[in-house]
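Reviewers of the previous submission asked for a worked example of the structure-prediction workflow described in the proposal, so we include one complete record here. The input consisted solely of the amino acid sequence. No template or homolog information was supplied to the procedure at any stage.
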Amino acid sequence: MNEEKLLDLKLLYGETAKLDELPGYIEKSQELAGEGNDVVLTGKAPVWLYLKVAHALHGRARKLIYRSPVTGDIVIFDHNPF
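From that input alone, the workflow returned the following structure tokens.
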């Protein structure tokens, strides 16, 4: 059974996200997301980090959602067969 995993991207890095640490951010986000779960991306992070993590989770997450206090939930992809 799948579950919802909340990934606060701000928690992947310290004060400033660094491009040279991107492989580590991706690896950690994949660990936290698991396989076949509904994943919610949120938190203060640069756009490039959101885009790379979203790409890395495609094929691993069943559903990917972006959550912001401004926009609410936005479904990025949903591979739920039902």
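Residues 4-78 form one domain. We consider this example representative of the routine output the project will generate in years two and three.
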